[in-house]
Amino acid sequence: MHERTIPSHFVRAALRGAQRQGHDCTAILRAAGIQPALLEQSRARVDPEQFARLIRLLWEALGDEYMGFGPVQSKPGTFAMMCHATIHCRTLDKALRRGVLFYNLFPQAPDLQLQREGELARLSLDNSQLWDPDHFLTECLLVIWHRLASWLIGQRIRLEETTFSYAQPAHADDYELMFPCPRRFGAGSTSLLFQARYLDLPLLQDERTLRQFLKHSPADLLARPDGGDNLPSQIRRLLGRDCNHWPDLDGVARQLNTSPQTLRRHLREAGSSFQELKDQLRLDLAIYHLGRNELPIQDIAEQLGFSEPSAFHRAFKKWTGLTPGAYRAQES
């Protein structure tokens, strides 16, 4: 689909650091499955998988996760180590602050700051030391931090505003899929603004899910569009975390001002169902509790809305291939 493809502008921008260092970008493009001639067409677009492959190839060729745009290199594996440093934090606030501290330990790295502003929170990026003529790395870092934070808490963080310290570019219309919120150019800082309540939410991920996440990230975080306020995301937010008081399908439909029949149809079109969304949220919550050894499995089953532990055991094994006890043993 057109809206899931990547404009060629971002491909050209991604190559600027490698070109500056004298790398054979034609070979890199071909290895990514992108025809170099395609970039001569201003309106051309590439497949997200091709774009993700290109990012990984650039990291490999340059030995630099900053892709040649930073004053110093960020060695491959740096992002993964930051994730390992944050995954055991209890809340998103602690995780982001630890991640910011991790990167700020590196001299001349892009400076990150997390601040609360009343009911809002702002993650700011100082890109003044970057050689980033197209602002490619700047925008990549904003996307990665937003999507990483959303993944950590198991729900998309709705952005209130994204600000940029530079002028609006000619391709500004393409920013909708990266930053689906009000965007302000020529601002005093480059930042993401969101509700501070997200910072107090617990992390729903653990070492096990992180290993799977890091097989493809952060390259795939850059390649896929933001889910935005799509229907599954809206329903997940309406369900919340209290499984024993979840509204039924009719209740959710009423809150969304639609009929149950229409809601079912839209979910089918999105490749999901109401039950699948509930199961996925239960699984996220189960993994969160099992990874912390604070609650007996029977109590976890009750919190997740199962009538008896055996039902939880059967469901969890169906979802993961492991019983809750076996999963907890692997995590300990």
Automatic annotation (TrEMBL):
Q: Name one GO biological process term.
A: positive regulation of metabolic process
Q: Which Pfam families match?
A: Arabinose_bd, HTH_18
A GO term, aspect molecular function: transcription cis-regulatory region binding
Leader peptide range in chain numbering: none
Q: InterPro entries attached here?
A: AraC-type_N, Homeodomain-like_sf, HTH_AraC, HTH_AraC-typ_CS, Tscrpt_reg_AraC-type_HTH
A single Gene Ontology CC term: cytosol
Q: Which residues form the HTH araC/xylS-type domain?
A: 233-330
What are the protein's UniProt keywords?
DNA-binding, Transcription, Transcription regulation
Protein name (Swiss-Prot/TrEMBL) = Transcriptional regulator, AraC family
